[in-house]
Design brief:
The structure is a single chain. This protein is α+β, with helices and mostly antiparallel strands and 619 residues long. A hairpin with a 4-residue loop joins strand 9 and strand 10. The chain contains 18 helices and 28 strands. It is globular and about 80 Å long. The N and C termini lie far apart (85 Å). It is 29% helix and 20% strand. It folds into two domains: 227 residues, Phosphoenolpyruvate Carboxykinase, domain 1, CATH 3.40.449.10; 233 residues, Phosphoenolpyruvate Carboxykinase, domain 3 (Alpha-Beta Complex). The structure holds sulfoacetic acid and manganese (II) ion. Manganese (II) ion binds next to loops. Sulfoacetic acid binds next to helix 9 and helix 10.
Length: 619
């Protein structure tokens, strides 16, 4: 039936031979899957093939294999049971945006914010790189489902990878294995991944194989396929996440009338027991996981987590928006996380967690900057050498990978296939000045403008310069799989025909004073802002109109117990805003004809409001 190569590979399948596998029919019944596997084997020429069933034994077996190899260091079985430390190659520590491509047939469909190359040319290049790239390695076939199993909204993918670290991570981050395979039918998104380091006969492998010279994370939106070469880290390699659930899903969402967004999802319950759900878009490393796992400093308020990174949002029959988190794990930033800042995150990662690029303590536990005030004695840094003061102990983009089920405040509706109803949408970036702590959009289209104008300081989630303010519309700059102008139009369209859209808010936890100190304590105190937002959606929260939107009326933000100058948090320097608007207009010019006129008009209205208020102020 199959090419002899496939058959021989199947028979060398590492832990149970194909003949005795109970699930063999499930695999072979999907001919497009068999074809994908066969082509990958022929192209990448692995030594072995392993069909992953997603079982606990399989996960344990892979972890043991990684421990034997030295890639995983088991952590203390009492302090951190079931957990491992993994150190990546120092050249492979974050997403690489300059190597990420959207290869639509037409360049204008990828738009000016994405790297593009003709798909045919890209395929030629990739085929050369992938030829023989898995020599001496095992090819793992990983069926996975993004979204609840069996939900009509879920998407199934199959990642073929030569990285056991990726397989273990996919185990945590997705519903993976036989359960996903059962939902494939003939429709799945093929994802081909290689670390890009073939092994010559007799060559000893390194602990974290990767290819520093050639790195490509490539998306073919029309073909709906993903090819990733050269990196084994995070979003570059766990292809269900940014590549499928955002870049490819955003293309599907535009075609089918829904939204695939870089958003956290939380439920908030007030002291009277009323619960509402909110979505929030923030660029990478701007506190999404902390907000999603917030431990409120105000008595009587409760936050529950639905997701910390990605939301798929659809309109329900009632015209309201409903959201699901397609992931089943957190891939969270470790540095800065502590019992003081995020108790629930610490509880979540107290066991059965993979830590990547954190420091190792003498007693085989983990450490990172911010975990405790001072580093413990005898620390080993993320590169495996003795820690020296002044050098980072953990890499700033060090991560924990952990199942959402371990989260003590996981929302009970987390798995609801129809999703949770949204009462509000938040946009936020990391802005040292200008943007107030919170304000509310006047309308859906004004809110879309706020999303489109979102800028943030760059962080170490992506390789490159840190701390430079850049436009990051809807926090989707690195993740939108098509033309950003079309994306703005899609957002406007979602809100056109109904009054049922939730209100949109903008938040900024990161404003600083003249001396560079944060003005807002953040973390658990963010509940104070969420309380105002919650109450606004009840039409109870008092607000005042300002040129940029509704601000909390003086005294309406609950600052009980804090000594904070409210004025500074909300100060509007109109000249700064005028400058910002000029900047945004210049940025929007990038999108040419595809820039929706409606948004440009919203920008004009904003400018006019600011101009009028500054001229009144100066009278
Ligand atoms: O893309 S990653 O998953 O590596 C992390 C992020 O940027 O959110
Ligand atoms: Mn993210």
């Amino acid at each position: 039936m199959h090419d002899p190569l496939v058959r021989s590979a199947i028979f060398t399948c590492s832990f149970s031979t194909w003949k005795v596998r109970e699930d063999s029919k499930l695999w072979t019944s999907c001919s497009s899957l068999m074809q994908f596997i066969e082509e990958a084997i022929n192209l990448c020429t692995p030594e072995e093939v392993q069909f992953c069933d997603g079982s606990e034994e399989e996960y344990q077996h892979l972890c043991e294999r990684l421990v034997k190899k030295g890639t995983f260091i088991p952590l203390d079985s009492v302090k951190r049971p079931g957990s491992y430390l993994c150190r990546s190659d120092p050249s492979d520590v974050a997403r690489v945006e300059e190597c990420t491509f959207i290869c639509s047939r037409l360049q204008e469909d990828a738009g000016p914010t994405n790297n593009w190359k003709d798909p045919e040319e890209m395929k030629v290049l990739l085929l050369k790189l992938f030829a023989g790239c898995m020599q001496g390695r095992t090819l793992y076939v990983v069926p996975f489902c993004m979204g609840s199993l069996g939900s009509s909204f879920s998407l199934v993918g199959v990642e073929i990878t030569d990285s056991p670290y990726v397989v273990c991570s996919m185990h945590i981050m997705t519903r993976m294995g036989i359960s996903a395979l059962q939902h494939i039918q003939s429709n799945f998104i093929p994802c081909l991944h290689s670390v890009g380091k073939p092994l010559q006969p007799g060559e000893k492998d390194v602990l974290w194989p990767c290819n520093q010279e050639h790195r490509y994370i490539v998306h073919f939106p029309e073909e709906r396929s993903i090819w990733s070469f050269g990196s084994g880290y995070g979003g570059n390699a766990l292809l269900g996440k940014k590549s499928m659930a955002l870049r490819i899903a955003s293309v599907l969402a535009k075609e089918q009338g829904w939204l695939a967004e870089h958003m956290l999802l939380i439920g908030i319950t007030n002291p009277e027991g009323k619960k509402k759900y909110f979505a929030g878009a923030f660029p990478s490393q701007c506190g999404k996981t902390n907000l999603a796992l917030l431990c409120p400093s105000l008595p009587g308020w409760k936050v529950e987590c639905v997701g910390d990174d990605i939301a798929w949002i659809r309109k329900g029959k009632d015209g309201c928006l409903y959201a699901v988190n397609p992931e089943s794990g957190f891939f969270g930033v470790a540095p800065g996380t502590s019992y003081a800042s995020n108790k629930y995150a610490m509880q979540t990662i107290s066991h059965d967690t993979i830590f990547t690029n954190v420091a190792l303590t003498q007693d085989h536990d983990v450490w990172w900057e911010g975990l405790t005030k001072t580093p413990p004695i005898g620390l080993i840094d993320w590169k495996g050498g003795a820690y020296h003061t002044g050098q980072p102990a953990a890499h700033p983009n060090a991560r924990f990978t952990v199942k959402v089920e371990q989260c003590p405040i996981l929302d009970t509706h987390f798995k609801d296939p129809e999703g949770i109803p949204l009462s509000g949408i938040l946009f936020g970036g990391r802005r040292a000045s200008m943007v107030p702590l919170v304000y509310e959009a006047f309308s859906w289209s004004h809110g879309v403008l706020i999303g489109a104008c979102l800028s943030s300081e760059t962080t170490s989630a992506a390789a490159g310069h840190v701390g430079k303010v850049r436009h990051d519309p809807f926090a989707m700059l690195p993740f939108c799989g098509y033309h950003m102008g079309d994306y703005f139009a899609h957002w406007l369209r979602m809100g056109h025909d109904s009054q049922t859209m939730p209100p949109i808010f903008c938040v900024n936890w990161f404003r600083k004073d003249g001396e560079g100190n944060f003005l807002w304590p953040g973390f658990g105190d963010n509940i104070r802002v969420l309380k105002w937002i919650f109450e606004r959606t009840e039409e109870r929260g008092p607000a005042v109109s300002s040129p940029i939107g509704y601000l909390p009326a003086p005294g309406s933000l609950d600052l009980t117990g804090l000594s904070i100058a409210e004025d500074e948090l909300f100060a509007l320097t109109l000249s700064e805003w005028q400058q910002e608007i000029r900047e945004c207009r210049e940025y929007f010019a990038l999108f040419g004809e595809k820039m929706p006129k409606e948004l440009l008009q919203e920008l004009d209205h904003l400018e006019k409001r600011i101009y009028e208020s500054s001229s009144t102020a100066s009278k």
